[in-house]
Amino acid sequence: MNDKNKKLAKTFAAYALTTTALLGGGFALQSGVNALQREPAAITETVQAAQAQEVTRRDLASVPRGDGHPVLVIPGFFGNDLYMTELQNTIRGHGYTVYGWEAGMNLGPSQTKALQLEEHLKQIYEANGHKKVSLVGYSLGGVYARELARRHPELVENVITLGAPFGQRESGGQTDARVAQIQSFYQQDNIDPRVAPPVPTTSLYSTGDWVAGWKEALNTGGKQAENVRVGGGHIAMPFADDVAAVILDRLAQKTYNWQPVAKTPAAPPHHPSGA
C-alpha cells in the first residue's frame, strides 16, 4: 500500500470516527456498565481476567506464512473496504487469498447487506475449491462475522474480530437492539451473542478502546474461544502492525490443533537434525 493510499485510508478513518460520534452511532458511547453490574459472577470474572491480561505482542516477521486459504475482511460502522485496505494488504502479503466485503459503506444493521455477505461467503468458498473461509471483522463488522459463522460453520475456518461490541447490552440487560437485529438476519434469535460461534473464535480487544467499549468485546463461552488484549485504541486497530501480527498468528492456527494465543510460541520449536 503506497503512502498516498495509507494517508487516504487513515483520513477516512478519522472522518468515520468523527461522524460516528456526532451521530451517536458508536456502540461504546451507549454505556453497558449498569447491565454489567447485574450480570452473573462468571461474566464479572471474564471482565476482570481480561482487564488483568497483559498486552499480546507478535512480530510480523516471526509469524508463519499463510497456506493460501481465503480470508474475508469486513469493515466496521461507517467503514468500507478502503478503510481496511492496509490490513487486507498485510494479510495478502503474508500468503492468504483476501477478499473485501464488496458492499460499499457499512451503515449499520441491514438485512440486504447481511444477505449479500452470506452469498459472498458462499461464492468465496466455491471459488476456492471448497476451502473454508476465515472471517476478520472490525467493530460492527465483527458482529456480522460472528453471526455469519454461527449460521454457516461448515463454510468458516475461524473468526477473528477487532474491537467488536457483540456483547453490548441495553440498560435493561437485554442484548443491544442492533446486535439482535444482525442475529435475526441470520435466524439466530434468542442466542447469547457473547458465546462464540462453533468455530475457533478470537476477539481482539483493547482496554483503551473508548469507541466500541472493550467489555462488550469479550467472549464469555465457546469451546475454542479466546479474548486477546492488544494495545492502542479503536481507530488504530486496522492500521497497527502488532495487531496485524496477532491476526496473522491466529490465521496460521490449524482447526484440528487449535491453541489459544497464550499457548502459541512466538517461533516454531527447534528440532535437531535427524530427530
For this entry, give a set of tags.
single chain; 275 residues; six-stranded parallel β-sheet; 6 strands; 12% strand
Describe the structure.
45% of the residues are buried. With 275 residues, the chain is an alpha/beta fold. Helices cover 35% and strands 12% of the residues. The protein has a 6-stranded parallel β-sheet with strand order 2-1-3-4-5-6. The radius of gyration is 18 Å and the shape is globular. Mean pLDDT is 86; it is low at 18-37 and 267-275.
CATH architecture: 3-Layer(aba) Sandwich
Largest sheet descriptor: 6 strands, parallel
Q: For this structure, what is the CATH class?
A: Alpha Beta
Domains (count): 1
User: Number of DSSP helices?
Assistant: 8
Write the layout of secondary structure elements.
Elements (H helix, E strand, L loop, with lengths): L2 H21 L9 H5 L3 H12 L17 E5 L10 H9 L3 E4 L10 H17 L5 E6 L1 H12 L4 E7 L14 H9 L15 E5 L19 E5 L11 H11 L24
Parallel strand pairs: 1-2, 1-3, 3-4, 4-5, 5-6
